[in-house]
Write a structure and sequence with these properties.
By secondary structure, the protein is an all-beta fold. Helix content is about 5%, strand content about 40%. It is built from 1 helix and 16 strands. The strands form 3 sheets. Strands 1, 2, 3, 4, 5, 6, 9, 12, 15 and 16 form a 10-stranded parallel β-sheet that branches. The chain has a 3-stranded parallel β-sheet with strand order 7-10-13, with no helix packed on it. It starts with about 25 loop residues before the first strand and ends with a strand. The N terminus is likely disordered.
Length: about 200
């Protein structure tokens, strides 16, 4: 591709934009938010509040995924979300994650995170995780409202509210309100309520 030609806007996966710093992808609904996983290094902006429904996470719902609920964007530290998301003060509400077994290991709206995220509210979040390392591989599990694990991220003005609970081997379970584990992450006012 010619680097001097601006990418075309993608009106099928997103509400607009080309994913570039000067022209971020525009996200206005849950399906477009889900499509972020297709380009983990792109630039995004929320243009509307996004509200998930409980019916999205039951059998037949768009995000049921065999009872696991929402699939985190950016699977792990090898494939994290490393782009930019401008929340614009908007809210993502009603996300539900109910993982069980030995996968995924990174649980949150995002799984692995090495990105810039600003001015975002996450409300009515539900995470109810039950981990079991069936193969005795001594895996670690990371659970957080925004991301399971964050490294080299810039987080500004993030709020998360809801309920997070997780069961698993004590020495291999990392649980937090914003992220389960973070290294090299810089964050300005961020807050979380109701961790169990």
């Amino acid at each position: 591709d010619n680097p001097y030609i601006a990418p075309q806007e993608d009106a099928t996966r997103f509400a607009g934009g080309s994913g570039m710093p000067y022209d971020p992808y525009q996200i206005s609904n849950a399906a477009q938010l889900n499509n972020m996983r297709q380009e983990l290094g792109a630039y995004y902006t929320l243009t509307e509040d996004i509200a998930f429904s409980p019916s999205d996470f039951v059998s037949g719902g768009a995000y049921y995924h065999n009872g696991q609920g929402w699939t985190p964007i950016g699977a792990d530290e090898r494939y994290p979300f490393f782009g930019l998301l401008e929340g614009g003060g908007h809210t993502i509400s009603g996300v539900t994650l109910t993982p069980s077994g030995s996968s995924p290991q990174y649980v949150g709206l995002f799984g692995g995170l090495g990105a810039t995220i600003r001015d975002l509210n996450i409300t009515d979040l539900t995470i109810c995780a039950s981990f079991h390392d069936a193969n005795q591989e001594y895996n670690s599990f990371y659970v957080g409202g925004l991301a399971g694990r964050s490294y080299n991220s810039l987080l500004e003005h993030i709020t998360v509210s809801g309920t997070i609970s997780a069961q698993g081997e004590e020495d291999g379970l990392y649980l937090g309100g914003i992220f389960g584990s973070g290294g090299g992450s810089y964050h300005q006012p961020v807050s979380y309520t109701h961790l169990t």
